[in-house]
Each structure stands twice: as C-alpha cells, then as structure tokens.
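Apologies for my clumsy wording, but can you show me some protein sequence, whichever is easiest, together with the matching structure tokens, please?
=====
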Amino acid sequence: MDLRREIDAVVMGASAGGVHALQAVLSSLSADFAPPVLVVLHLPSGRPSRLPELFAPHCARPVCEAYDKQPLEPGTVVFAPPDYHLLVEDRGHLALSVDEPVLYSRPAVDFLFDSAAAAFTHRLLAILLTGASADGSEGIAAVRRAGGVAWVQDPSDAASELMPSSALALAGADEVLTLNKICERLAAY
C-alpha cells in the first residue's frame, strides 16, 4: 500500500504494554511523515498525562496532547488526554468528549476510530496495538466498513494479546503485523 497516495490520517490505539509499542511505532515515523497521527492510550483517570513529554524525544514529528476544537495539523502526533474521549469532529478539527467510558476506558479507542472512519473513510489507516481490553474492536470494524485500512498487531507479538485478538475475532484486519513490521512499513513511507 502506498501511504503517500492513499492515507490522509492515521489513528492508533493501545492499552497494556502500549507505551513500549507506541514508542517503537512513533520513533519509526520520518520527519516528513505527512498524515496527522491521532493516538489513544488507556490512561488512569484523575492525574495529568506526561505522554507528549515521554514521546517527543523519540519522535521526529511534533507531539502534543489534544484540546477541544483543535485544528488537525499535518504531520502532528496528537494524544488523547486523560478522562476525555478524542474524536475527529470533521476532517479539519478534533473534539473532546466526556461521554461514558467504553469498557471502563475514557479515552477509548472505539470513539477515536469510529469518528475518524466517518471523517476520512477510505483514506484512513487504523493501527491497533497491544492491550488488555476489547476496546478498539468496534472501531476496527467501523474503519473497515468505511473502506479504511486496518492493521492489527499480531496477538502473539503483543505484550497483552486481548485487544488485538478481540479485534481480529470481531472485525478481522487488512493486515496482521508484528510490531517490527508495523514500524518498517511506516518507516518506508
């Protein structure tokens, strides 16, 4: 798949084991990686996130935490803040929501993937990584229904296989890849 031609945005979701997995994936992005990258990592509620500070030194792209009505900037890596769902409001803006948690998680992967699928349809790449929750399964299904591309980490390669296994059981994937292969594919962009 030629990402330069086909993809306008990338969404990623992770939970248990996700810091390591996201560090590997985000460090594989080149300085000229054009699509915005939107990320949900399950976080404990009630305390501030340090994700931008944690990931910025390992990423060649700007890294920030989302705010409500934020313009969607090319090449930027945007993390969902704790206690808020991150949504793509339209192709140009992000929104934050305090809707009920999904499978005990807010932010939830499903919220991001569903809204991004509606906004970007066939020009979206969704990447679901390691996690100990079924969150993300419905989101992968939505991405695939909209014609987007879904990569799911190989459960046998994941620190916690429940999240990728659940997504594969419910929705399948366009590709099931090891973490190293995901990094290679994004680095080749």
